[in-house]
């Protein structure tokens, strides 16, 4: 009898929750969970389309990103549409830069290809080669044969969301295997000169932040992210200019056998998965 009374007291199911209540629940979930719940029934599907559900998942600078990356007015798009576009890697500035959002946190990350940097002697094939590579986000890396003077510089103007960011150079000692022989180990024959003097990494911002680090390049045959420094953004409405560099300009010796892929900028909390090198 007790069981019968209990059954009589149970009314409806998930589909009878008011749509506004469902939307408030979904707003507390992360994006992958919202998408899973949206498949339960029509009520959850409709609730998952609400702008306020997705606005909290977007970075604070999303309006700037929509205009910058898609040349579109944010007011013409739903917040779900904007999130969907930004959650995929988006190239800009002649495909030399790429932005993507971490799906769970909504934090923005950026990679700048070596093609978007100023590299001394980069077009002289005696010093540098441009190599196709599946290990790069941009499917291409710059390989250094040998130079006396190494200088790589970059500059960026951007409206970042408020937070603390880290900047890294992604490098590898050793020439990667070719597409025809992808299982071959890195060729280390040309690696030389990096143990004599450290490489100097430097970064400065238009609001007065500055960082310098030095590091001997030691790790062979694997990609390593060399930390340049951190910077803080307080207001996403104010564009920030960042200048950064990697140099080894001691001309007493040559150095070579280095691969340069890209520069990575990401929130400090997102840098845990990077393979980092110890700096001096």
From TrEMBL:
Coiled-coil positions: none
Organism for this UniProt entry: Carnegiea gigantea
InterPro entries: F-box-like_dom_sf, F-box_dom, PP2-like
Protein name (Swiss-Prot/TrEMBL): F-box domain-containing protein
SUPFAM superfamilies tied to this protein: F-box domain
F-box domain sequence ranges: 16-49
Pfam families named among the record's database cross-references: F-box, PP2
């Amino acid at each position: 009898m007790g069981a019968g009374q209990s059954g009589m007291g149970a009314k409806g199911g998930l589909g009878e929750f008011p749509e506004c209540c469902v939307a408030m629940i979904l707003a507390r979930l992360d994006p992958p969970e919202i998408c899973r719940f949206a498949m339960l029934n029509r009520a959850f599907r409709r609730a998952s389309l609400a702008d306020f559900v997705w606005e909290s998942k977007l970075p604070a600078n999303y309006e700037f990103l929509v205009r910058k990356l898609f040349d579109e007015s944010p007011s013409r798009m739903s917040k779900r549409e904007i999130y969907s576009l930004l959650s995929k890697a988006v190239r800009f500035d002649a495909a030399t830069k790429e932005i993507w959002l971490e799906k769970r946190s909504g934090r923005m990350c950026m990679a700048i290809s070596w093609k978007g940097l100023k590299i001394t002697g980069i077009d002289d094939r005696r010093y540098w080669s441009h190599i196709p590579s599946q290990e790069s986000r941009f499917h291409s890396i710059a390989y250094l044969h040998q130079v006396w003077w190494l200088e790589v510089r970059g500059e960026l103007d951007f409206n970042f969301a408020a937070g603390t960011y880290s900047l890294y150079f992604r490098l590898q000692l050793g020439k990667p295997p070719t597409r025809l022989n992808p299982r071959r180990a890195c060729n280390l024959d040309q690696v030389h000169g990096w143990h004599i003097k450290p490489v100097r990494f430097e970064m400065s911002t238009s609001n007065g932040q500055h960082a310098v680090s030095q590091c001997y390049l030691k790790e062979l045959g694997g990609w390593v992210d060399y930390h340049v420094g951190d910077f803080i953004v307080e207001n996403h409405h104010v564009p920030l200019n960042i200048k950064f560099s990697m140099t080894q300009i001691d001309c007493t010796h040559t150095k070579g056998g280095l691969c340069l892929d890209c520069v990575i900028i990401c929130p400090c909390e997102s840098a845990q998965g990077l393979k980092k090198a110890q700096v001096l």
